[in-house]
Every structure is written in C-alpha cells, then in structure tokens.
Amino acid sequence: MSKQKGFTLIELVVVIIILGILAVVAAPKFINLSRDAKISTLDGIGAAIKFAADETYLKAQIEGAAEQARSSASNPPFVEIPAGIFELKYGYPEAWPESGLGILDMVDIDDSIVVCFGSDCDSASNSSRVQIGYNLVQGESLPSDDEACYLRYSEPGGTGGNSETRYTVTHFTDGC
C-alpha cells in the first residue's frame, strides 16, 4: 500500500483560519493608506510654502522691504523674483494680494486640492489667510477639527492669533 501525501482537512482549515485572522489584523493598516497619502501631500505643500516664504523673505531683506507692514492697497511693499512681483507683509508673501502675486503663486497645487480664502471658506475679498486641503467647500464654513484635512497659511500680522511679524503654517489632519 502506498502512503498518500498532502494535507488533511483539519490542517487546511487551521491554515485558512490563521490567514483570516492575519487579514483582519492587517486590513486597518492598509485602509489608512489614503489618510497617510493625504497627510503626506499636505506636508509637502506646507514644506513648499515654507521654503517659498523664507526665500522671499531673504530677497526682501536684501531689498530693504523685510520689516514693512502693508500701509495701503496702492503702495504695498514688494519684491520681484523670476516668477513675478510679489506683494509682501513684513517681508513674507501675502495670502491674497490686491494686485501682485501671493504665496499660492509660488507653489504647484494639484486640481484635486481645494483652496479657499478667509477665516472660513466664505471670503470673497482680500484675506490674510488661505486654507489648502481636501474637504473644503467654497462658500461654507471650515469643517470641524475631527473632520478637518487641510493646512492654513496665515500671513504676518494677520487675524486669528497671528500678530507676529512671521507667517504661520498650521496643519489640521484629524479628518484625513
């Protein structure tokens, strides 16, 4: 009589159960890949904004425009770089300038990412802050903190607790 080779039914069932348990444990990690990708994208945009703002500030220091606040809409401090003429506030690019270029003209933002201005996304005029993210809707209030997936650039001397002479970039990623 020849001896048969292979797995018994019990061994096969045990292996299937073990694989099922591993899949249940590993699935949440793979589900969060979308969240991680969104956060990484926002981190990259934030880093690009910081680099662009800091480089503009260096140019403003060279030209003597680094310590000037915006005195009027008709005579803002500015610097000219190869990308164009940028309006400044304390040497940093404005969020939404009156006539020149602003911080968003220095970074490349994908069309799938929403950009809105103001303390919420409902501003239709000059604003000292800009929100860049995924779950923003033009004309509506910003999402609550647990639904937020965006970053905010606040120009120096702007509203919302940013009274310093330096910009801030704040990340809101609990809802990504």
Provide structural commentary:
The protein has one domain (39-172). Helix content is 31%, strand content 18%. It has helices spanning 9-31, 33-63; strands spanning 78-81, 84-89, 92-93, 114-117, 129-133, 150-154, 168-172. A hairpin with a 2-residue loop joins β1 and β2 (84-89). The longest helix has 31 residues, at 33-63. The chain starts with 8 loop residues before the first helix and ends with a strand. The mean pLDDT is 84.
Question: Would you spell out the secondary-structure blueprint of this structure?
Answer:
Elements: H1 9-31, H2 33-63, E1 78-81, E2 84-89, E3 92-93, E4 114-117, E5 129-133, E6 150-154, E7 168-172
Antiparallel strand pairs: 1-2, 2-3, 4-5, 5-6, 6-7
